[in-house]
């Protein structure tokens, strides 16, 4: 029997971690047409949760991702899509759980199946219309609760021996990484340089680049090298080497896959071979960078931003999971009641890999 109310962690506005409120009597969602109701088993954390809470996406903010409140946020462009966020909001994009009910038009055969939720909300008559896209846990309520609902076309039933917590590490990080690599057309013969390799997307970039037959050079702080090594990069460099060119002597970097940005950014671009590609889906070390147009055009470089990716990227990741071609990088689990502590650990990079909360 589905209860009328549920436990949920609710975001009440932009700001610090005190903007989260714990509720034990929040209304359980009701699935609408083509929707399924999911009893959440686990939900991963990602940078979008932090950036949306703090309002970092606003152009009024030019600082690195800090996880704290900013002195100035323009509410009109405070989300990934440059639009206002409505409150209260239940965040949590990386939901995994069991379908317990369906709305009108949704196939009831999915009831009882374990599913992963795709992060992107789409107009399914135009699934690649980026102007109509939204994000789960941002433009609608997400998985930081006992129950959530999602469009049946944006979930995948999955057969896997992995736990709910392990499965909750994949959706945002790995689909983001797959979209980046698609945009950069990474394949055999490429050498991919990955700054921020100890994070969720960085770890996914390592595995998915190797799956495509590329050579991978990861960058991470020395303390995290042992964990990064488990993901199979060909080489691991320091996070901020004194002389990156010397470290890369003999390497031909054809792709930089970046979610870091910041002061290191010009050095990364300088490492690209003529005709190389740069793909980006984040800027945790700072969104404002020094860009020399001469490097860009004289070397025939291609730059791609990667946010709203193809639905196929999600279903490809699910296939890789079921085939055992990629593995989860689960760093730690926390009860949902400790979401603030979990997010602080995520911000402080206390763990290598993904952090997951359990309702």
Apparent shape: globular
What share of the residues lie within helices?
Answer: 10-25%
Largest sheet features: 7 strands, mixed
On the 0 to 100 scale, the average pLDDT is 95
Using brief descriptors, characterize the structure shown.
ER; 10 helices; 6-stranded parallel beta sheet; NAD(P)-bd_dom_sf; cytoplasm; RNA binding; single chain; 22% helix; 359 residues; Quinone Oxidoreductase, Chain A, domain 1; Rossmann fold; alpha/beta; 7-stranded mixed beta sheet; globular
Outline:
This protein has 359 residues and is α/β, with parallel strands linked by helices.
Structure, explained:
One of its GO terms (cellular component) is cytoplasm. With 359 residues, the chain is an alpha/beta fold. The protein has two domains: 5-169 and 328-358, Medium-chain alcohol dehydrogenases, catalytic domain (Quinone Oxidoreductase, Chain A, domain 1); 174-305, Rossmann fold. It has ten helices and 17 strands. It has helices at residues 47-54, 164-167, 171-183, 200-211, 225-229, 244-247, 265-270, 293-298, 311-322, 339-347, and strands at 5-11, 20-27, 35-44, 94-102, 114-117, 120-121, 134-135, 147-151, 155-157, 191-194, 215-219, 235-237, 253-258, 272-280, 302-305, 330-335, 354-358. α5 (225-229) links the parallel β11 and β12. α3 (171-183) crosses α4. The longest helix is centred in the middle third of the chain and has 13 residues, at 171-183.
Helix-strand blueprint:
Elements (H helix, E strand, L loop, with lengths): L4 E7 L8 E8 L7 E10 L2 H8 L39 E9 L11 E4 L2 E2 L12 E2 L11 E5 L3 E3 L6 H4 L3 H13 L7 E4 L5 H12 L3 E5 L5 H5 L5 E3 L6 H4 L5 E6 L6 H6 L1 E9 L12 H6 L3 E4 L5 H12 L7 E6 L3 H9 L6 E5 L1
């Amino acid at each position: 029997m589905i209860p009328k109310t549920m436990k949920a962690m609710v975001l009440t506005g932009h700001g610090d971690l005190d903007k989260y409120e714990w509720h034990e009597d929040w209304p359980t969602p009701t699935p609408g047409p083509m929707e399924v109701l999911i009893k959440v088993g686990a939900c991963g954390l990602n940078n979008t949760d932090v950036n949306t809470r703090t309002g970092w996406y606003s152009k009024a903010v030019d600082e690195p991702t800090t996880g704290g409140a900013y002195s100035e946020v323009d509410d009109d462009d405070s989300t990934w899509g440059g639009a206002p966020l409505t409150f209260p909001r239940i965040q949590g994009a990386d939901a995994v759980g069991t379908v317990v009910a369906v709305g009108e038009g949704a196939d009831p055969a999915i009831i009882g199946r374990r599913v992963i939720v795709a992060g992107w909300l789409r107009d399914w008559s135009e699934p690649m219309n980026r102007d109509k896209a939204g994000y789960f846990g941002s433009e609608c309520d997400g998985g930081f609760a006992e129950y959530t609902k999602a469009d049946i076309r944006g979930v995948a039933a999955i057969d896997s021996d992995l736990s709910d917590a392990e499965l909750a590490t994949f959706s945002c990080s790995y689909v983001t990484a797959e979209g980046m690599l698609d945009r950069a057309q990474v394949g055999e013969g490429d050498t991919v340089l990955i700054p921020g390799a100890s994070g969720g997307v960085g770890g996914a970039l390592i595995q998915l680049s190797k799956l495509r037959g590329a050579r991978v050079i990861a960058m991470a702080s020395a303390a995290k090298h042992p964990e990064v090594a488990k993901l199979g990069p060909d080489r691991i460099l320091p996070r901020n080497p004194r002389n990156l060119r010397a470290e890369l002597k003999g390497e031909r970097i054809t792709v930089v896959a970046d979610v870091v940005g910041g002061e290191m950014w010009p050095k990364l671009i300088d490492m690209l071979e003529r005709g190389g590609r740069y793909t980006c889906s984040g800027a945790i070390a700072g969104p404002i960078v020094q860009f020399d147009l001469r490097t860009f055009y004289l070397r025939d470089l291609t730059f791609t931003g990667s946010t709203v990716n193809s639905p196929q990227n999600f279903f490809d990741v699910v296939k890789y999971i079921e085939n055992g071609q990629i593995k989860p990088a689960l760093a730690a689990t926390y009860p949902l009641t400790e979401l603030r502590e979990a997010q602080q650990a995520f911000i402080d990079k206390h763990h290598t890999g993904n952090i997951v909360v359990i309702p």
